[in-house]
Amino acid sequence: MIQTCYGYKRCGRKRVHEWIPGGLDDILVPVETFRLDNMFQDVIEHDQRFDFDRVPAVVELCRQAGANIDDENLHPGMLDLDGGIGHIDGGEPFSPSHLMYIAKEILDAWEKLRSGVQRLLLVYPSKVCKHCSEVHIGPSGHKARLCGVFKFESWHGKHFWKKAEVDDLVPPKIVWRRRPQDPLVLVNEGRDFYGHAPAVVDLCTKTGIIVPTKYSCMMKIQGLSAPVSR
Questions:
Q1: Which of 9, 66, 92, 207 could form a disulfide with 99 if both were Cys (CB 3.0 to 4.6 A apart)?
Q2: Are 217 and 111 in contact (CB under 8 A)?
Q3: Residues 6 or more apart from 88 whose CB is under 8 A from it?
Q4: Own/partner pairs for 62-68, CB < 8 Å, 24+ apart?
Q5: CB-CB neighbours of 5 under 10 Å
Q6: pLDDT value for 199
Q7: pTM of the model
Q8: How many CB atoms lie within 10 A of CB 27?
Q9: Which residue has the higher pLDDT, 141 or 81?
Q10: Which residues pair with residue 77 across a beta bridge?
Q11: In the predicted structure, residue 230 carries a pLDDT above the cut 90
């Protein structure tokens, strides 16, 4: 019930959310970029925007670093737990121990992903538009007019590039987090008391695993709950 919804096309403020089932892209937000022939090729012009494929930005960064994305070793298939869990639909439900194992594997992969991207960004130049979420793996950005920020339409949709950070390629998607001391439904009056966490981390905590201590301050694990109104 926290009133942080801006409504359709941001035409309203402080509205109550209208909830629907979430999917994978809501937890791990996809960020795509142009697939280049090489890091230092000519700048992509606006009329060339359909001549290049769009691929995940992390994949393009790794490819520019020398990874062979067609290598079969990079596609090992679904996680196999105890040799019997690879198909979720129509299968037996996961046991609590299996869920905790999966959550730990996900959290380890999440930390390795962000750490690896951070190190690659120290070596390989990447850009992000400071007015929208467009990412370009390369030293100079591109000239495709894709920027949709309304108040900058007088600039004909041109991007304004700055150095990209980890959060630009791997958005953490910060969410409100319900703690044991919080009400079953988070209310707007308690927004100053509730904790936050990346959506991936919060999802993994549902299984009961302990997350890295670096998230403790953000999650306010031992923090106070909102006062009860009378």
A1: 207
A2: no
A3: none
A4: 62/120, 63/35, 64/36, 64/38, 64/39, 64/124, 64/137, 64/138, 65/120, 65/123, 65/124
A5: 14
A6: 96
A7: 0.81
A8: 15
A9: 141
A10: none
A11: no
**Residue 179, both tokens:** 């703690």
DSSP calls for 68-115 = -TT-GGG---S--BTTTBS--TTSPPPPHHHHHHHHHHHHHHHHHHHH
- The count of residues in the chain is 230
pLDDT at 208 over 60: yes
Q: Is 160 left (phi over 0), alpha (psi -120 to 50) or beta?
A: beta
Question: Token digits for 184?
Answer: 């079953």
Residue in this structure with the two tokens 């390989």, named with its chain if needed = 124
Q: Choose between 158 and 220: higher pLDDT.
A: 220
pLDDT of residue 108: 96
Nearest 5 degrees, angle CA 72-CA 73-CA 75? 70
Bridge partners for 85 per DSSP: 81
Q: Do residues 210 and 103 make contact, with C-beta atoms less than 8 angstroms apart?
A: no
**Which ranges of the chain would DSSP assign to H, the alpha helix?**
24-27, 57-64, 96-121, 166-169, 199-205, 216-219
State yes or no: pLDDT of 84 exceeds 70.
no
